Amino acid sequence: MNAAVPEPKHNMGRPAPRIDGRLKVTGGARYPSDLDFDNAAYAFLVTSPIATGRIERFDLDAARAVPGVLDILTYENASGIKGSGFFKEGGTAATTIVPLADARIRHDGQIIAMVLAETFETAREAAYKVQVEYVEETPAATFGDAHADIEIVIEPSEDEGTAHGDVEACLAAAEVTLDAEYGTPTQHHNPMELFTTTCVWEDDKLTVYEPSQFVFGLKNGVAEQLDIDPDNVRAVSTFIGGAFGSKGSLTPRTAITAFAARKLNRPVKLVPTRAQGFTIATYRAETRHRIRLGARRDGKLTAFSHEGWEVTSRPDNYFVAGVSTTTRMYGWDAVAARVHIVHADRNTPGFMRSPPETPYMYALESAIDEMAVKTGMDPVEFRRLNDTQTDPVSGKPYSSRSLMACFDAAAERFGWVRRNPEPGSMRDGDWRIGWGCATATYPTHVGAASARVRLTHDGKVRVETAAHEIGTGAYTVIGQAAAERLNVPLDDVTVEMGDTDLPAATIAGGSNTTASMCSVVIKACDRILARSHDGAAAIEEYAESVPPGAPAEGVKSLYQGRPVMTGGPSGDKAMFAFGAEFVEVRIHARTGEIRVPRAVGAFAAGHIMNPRTARSQLMGGMIWGLSCALHEATEIDRRAARYVNTNVSEYYVPVNADVDQVEVIFVPEDDEDVNPAGVKGIGELGNVGTPAAVANAVYHATGKRIRDLPIRIENLL
Ligand code: MOS
Question: How many angstroms separate the CA atoms of 706 and 696, rounded?
């Protein structure tokens, strides 16, 4: 055993290596951009350089004159592509903006044309020769712009579960109070793999090869947008080169590519550029927070008010409203939440790893550290005093909550007892040292799912389900679920996924894949075991599962492209995974340079299917959290409502030199309530606590409280 192969503890499975690992490291795993088709044409997108207004005129003569150009699609000749419903409102689409529907421009970087040519290079050359005249209007870019429209989407309400008790009275009576504002920037997922799509028609049957976190959504959404029978669409997504939420719902380029392939009557392959990925897909929108906390002098919290502001596009009511998590975090007497959205001339935001928790828990966990300082308490002991086993909003118990066990394990490993609480007191030569910590949490989601399992007389097992491998190890843990239940070696299990010809699976979002898919695979295996006396050469069983609280027709909804998920605060018990994260920062006294030499996270998340892949998820999440704290931000030119650092050299992400020691500790936890697999999702847990832990460490090092992310040198000089 080594760090990458953690020894399983109680309630943990084997640290099996990834069954697709060899394929991936040898280049044998074929990602959608790797696929080649005979007679394929290549597409290149033209996107708008203005954020709002309309197209006055296209001049396509120069572009069409490039030898090898086949066609150029614009709103003038691509009519017939419809929109589809917004995914938050029962549809499949990431945005209701239909780029080629008319001359209207709704955001910078909107698709305005698709050039089709014999080669990628020809399509690109011609795309740069497309001339467009625009009528420009003045855009709203973000908060505070005169043209932005503000709307309240969450109000404090006992009935809606967004308030409990009289928060204003409790704040007024509190002996210690905090009233502070926090902010997080626009961020883009930047998965290594671009937003590629290849469409192939055979007669009236369409196959879409596209990296997707939900192939049934892709299938049904494209069918709706092209107004064809979903039975005639197949979506294939066998390997996905990173997603983080960006590939969860349908974006406009898919239907345009399918339309092009039908028009040309040949396969069409689109590989957009890195820069185009910033505007043709989604992103994490900037947020603002006002946090008010009230406490007794002894540190017991009495009141918490969380107000949030989020940016979205003009037409779509996208918001994440992480108050549903923050209001439940500690045992206050009174709590209230309000969330506003601000409509600006931007592309529609979307899910990005721990969409609600990353910004909202950053704000809360920074504020908790500030209150610990105000009450003169150690931040760990402050959390212990305010820990709760009961959801303070609903009064429901947590199914399990091992938060303080996580704090104790991580604090011990980190050496927290050696911390001098005085800010600026710890130093190593020119380096100021800061130690900070924060809580991580993520709701435990479970989705409807189906799977087919086949056991043959030679002991081989085949699992078929349209689940998704976004890099998490899904092939492996789903295979492990079958291997363990049927008591066969993992090597004898084959897993087929990522194809709508297979049984419908849950969306790879909300960290629910392991919980949902292992639960349904266990169910199918149990049916096989019940028939094991059959003596047949092969036994095959199909199973569906729908979590408690979900509609009975949940699996049917999946086949129709609508994910069905429950969990978090919604059931009889509140279901969340927890963790505690500690970081050391070193800040150079003269240059302000910020380094993070070590981070320790301890996590409790029910049954851990595979400590190796789980460690990788949590470590990756912690590194992403460091990135959120210190590196990532999409900069916006406010006059033009335009992203300016649309590349991975100026959109900063951490490299090896930015990350030294990252240690993951598993705290054993049993939870029979969450789902039959006993699993709490971890894909989005690791990055929740790190941003606040870093900010709190920066305060400890310097005495400066930086309340807006990312924290950079200029904040510390
Ligand atoms: Mo995750 S952001 O729910 O794909």
Answer: 9
Q: Is 353 in the pocket of ligand 1 (CB under 6 A)?
A: yes
- Cα of 686 to ligand 1 centre, how many Å? 13
Structure tokens given for 421: 């609480």
Nearest partner of 34 among 24, 19, 44, judged by Cα: 24
Distance in Å, CA 439 to ligand 1 centroid:
20
pLDDT, average across residues 397-415: 98
Q: DSSP secondary structure string, 582-632?
A: EEEEEEETTT--EEEEEEEEEEE-B-BS-HHHHHHHHHHHHHHHHHHHHT-
The pLDDT of residue 3: 86
Nearest atom (ligand 1) to Cα of 510: 3
DSSP assignments along 382-402, one per residue: HHHHH--SB-TTT-PBBS---
The side-by-side arrangement of strands in the sheet containing 661-666 is 426-428, 431-443, 576-588, 594-604, 661-666
Cα 37 to Cα 207: distance, rounded to the nearest angstrom? 12
Residues 400 and 671 sit within 8 Å (Cβ to Cβ): yes
User: Given a cut of 70, is residue 190 above it in pLDDT?
Assistant: yes
d(CA 273, CA 374): 49
Which of 351, 506, 512, 688, when mutated, tests ligand 1's pocket best, judged by the most ligand atoms within 8 Å of its CB?
A: 351
pLDDT digits 0-9 by tens, 194-210: 999 999 999 999 999 99
In DSSP notation, 419-486 reads: ---STT-EEETTEEEEEEEEEEEEE-EEE-EEEEEEEETTS-EEEE-----SSS-HHHHHHHHHHHHH
Query: C-alpha 380: how far from its chain's center?
Result: 28
Indicate the residue type of 377: M
Average model confidence (pLDDT) for the chain?
97
Query: Residue 679: which residues within 8 A CB-CB, separation 6 or more?
Result: 514, 515, 518, 519, 605, 606, 607, 608, 609
Give the number of other Cβ atoms within 10 Å of residue 583's Cβ.
31
Residues 279-307 pLDDT 10s: 999 999 999 999 999 999 999 999 999 99
Distance 612 CA to ligand 1 centre (A): 21
Structural element, H or E, at residue 111: strand 111-117
Q: Alpha-carbon distance 693 to 696, whole Å?
A: 5
Q: What is the DSSP string of 539-575?
A: EEEEEEE--TTS-TTHHHHHHTT---EEETTSSSSB-
Using pLDDT thresholds of 50, 70 and 90, give the confidence band for residue 573: very high
Confirm or reject: Cβ of 309 under 6 Å from ligand 1: no
Q: What angle do CA 662, 5, 671 make, to 5 degrees?
A: 85
Return the structure tokens found at 338.
């309000």
For ligand 1, say whether the CB of 443 is within 6 Å of any of its atoms. Answer: no
Other Cβ atoms less than 10 A from the Cβ of 396: the count is: 17
pLDDT at residue 532 tops 90: no
Model confidence pLDDT, tens digit, residues 23-55: 999 999 999 999 999 999 999 999 999 999 999
Burial class of residue 532 in the structure, from the number of CB atoms within 10 Å of its CB (0-12 exposed, 13-18 middle, 19+ buried): exposed
Q: Which atom of ligand 1 is nearest to the CA of 245?
A: 4
Q: What is the DSSP letter of 177?
A: E
CA dihedral 500, 266, 190, 501 (to 10 degrees): 10
Single-letter code of the amino acid located at 687: N
CA of 247 to the centre of ligand 1 (A): 9
Given a cut of 80, whether residue 1 has pLDDT beyond it is no
Which of 353, 446, 472, 628 should be mutated for ligand 1, with most atoms under 8 A from CB?
Answer: 353
Active site residues per annotation: 684
pTM over 0.90: yes
**HSE of 515 in the Cβ direction (CA atoms, 13 Å)?**
33
Distance 245 CA to ligand 1 centre (A): 4
